């Protein structure tokens, strides 16, 4: 990445009763391509009396992507979906005009020690699809494109790159890529990418133009074609990117929209309990403020 525009370390933030590391957004950069929100969950060891409990809460104007490295989460939503998220699978929920979901530790794990580690991501919808009907897709780990090249492991979690296409049904040109190596390797993937790009170092170190960057840092370039770096041994990185939208996105709480009046209406609808209910979960998160 010979033209790094931003370097940032993840910052602590609370979601429900769980502490996460927030990667995006931040003051200088509100999005990376269509990606508008990235949280690093854990790694966390939870005791037998500790659980992830994010009660029913609403979303509009975006797709959520949940990707676990370890642990399990039970997803329930107002479309009637009830599915357990396991490591390596992709949980993709498109809110469109409005959806409500909850995320909790599965019942069989609630009274035992457990581990939780993963990424939670929001992808803004194109303006023309902001009010589409909600949709849900769960893609198992075995169905995610994975390959090895020169001793480096690649996985195309979402989108298109390297002449491959993920089964996750995205709505704009983007990519989310996992790269892992046990040995030091030069990675020159710029020719396979497009738009702007963010590189998150989950584990290990990378070197770029004589500078070494460590875990929990995200590097952002506005020109993904310049994405070239050296991965040190035992390093795992995640690449997020794609074509940015021409319109600005406004974000309040869990609402994303191109028009502030849409967000104001969503706020009023949530206060008035006009959103659909989550099946088999009666909780409720009050509107902040």
Compile the SSE list and pairings.
Elements: E1 6-9, E2 11-15, E3 18-24, E4 35-46, E5 53-59, E6 62-70, E7 73-77, E8 82-85, E9 90-94, E10 99-104, E11 114-124, E12 135-139, E13 146-149, E14 152-161, E15 164-165, E16 174-181, E17 185-188, E18 196-203, E19 205-208, E20 211-214, E21 217-221, E22 228-231, E23 235-242, E24 250-252, E25 255-257, H1 260-271
Antiparallel strand pairs: 1-21, 2-3, 3-4, 4-11, 5-10, 6-9, 6-11, 7-8, 7-10, 9-12, 13-14, 14-15, 14-16, 16-23, 17-22, 18-21, 18-23, 19-20, 19-22, 24-25
Walk me through what this model shows.
This protein has 289 residues and is mainly beta. The protein has a single domain (6-242), classed as Sandwich (Jelly Rolls). Helices cover 4% and strands 51% of the residues. The strands form five sheets. Strands 1, 13, 14, 15, 16, 18, 21 and 23 form an eight-stranded antiparallel sheet that branches. A seven-stranded antiparallel sheet has the order 2-3-4-11-6-9-12, with no helix packed on it. Strand 14 (152-161) and strand 15 (164-165) form a beta hairpin. The protein starts with 5 loop residues before the first strand and ends in an 18-residue tail after the last helix. The mean pLDDT is 90.
């Amino acid at each position: 990445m010979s033209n790094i525009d931003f370097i940032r370390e993840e910052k602590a933030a609370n979601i429900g009763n769980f502490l996460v590391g927030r990667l995006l957004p931040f003051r200088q950069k509100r999005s990376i391509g269509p990606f508008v929100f990235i949280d690093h969950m854990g790694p966390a060891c939870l005791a037998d009396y500790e659980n992830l409990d994010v009660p029913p809460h609403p979303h509009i104007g975006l797709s959520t992507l949940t990707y676990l490295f370890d642990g399990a989460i039970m997803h329930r939503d107002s479309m009637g979906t009830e599915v357990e998220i396991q490591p390596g699978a992709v949980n993709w929920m498109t809110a469109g005009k409005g959806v409500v979901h909850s995320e909790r530790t599965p019942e069989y794990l609630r009274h035992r020690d457990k581990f939780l580690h993963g990424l939670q991501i929001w992808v803004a919808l194109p303006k023309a699809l902001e009010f589409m009907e909600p949709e849900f897709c769960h893609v198992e780990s075995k169905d995610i494109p994975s390959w090895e090249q020169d001793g480096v492991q690649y996985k195309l979690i979402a989108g298109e790159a390297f002449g491959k296409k993920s089964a996750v049904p995205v709505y704009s040109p983007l990519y989310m890529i996992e790269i892992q190596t046990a040995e030091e390797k030069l990675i020159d993937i710029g020719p396979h990418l497009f738009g702007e790009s963010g590189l998150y170092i989950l584990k290990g170190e990378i070197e770029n133009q004589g500078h070494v960057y460590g875990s929990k840092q995200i590097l952002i370039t506005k020109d993904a074609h310049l994405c070239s770096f050296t991965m040190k041994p035992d390093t795992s990185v995640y690449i997020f990117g794609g074509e940015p939208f021409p319109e600005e996105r406004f974000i309040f709480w869990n609402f994303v929209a191109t028009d502030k009046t849409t967000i104001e209406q969503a706020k009023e609808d949530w206060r008035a309990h006009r959103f659909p209910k989550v099946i088999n979960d009666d909780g409720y998160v009050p509107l902040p403020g």
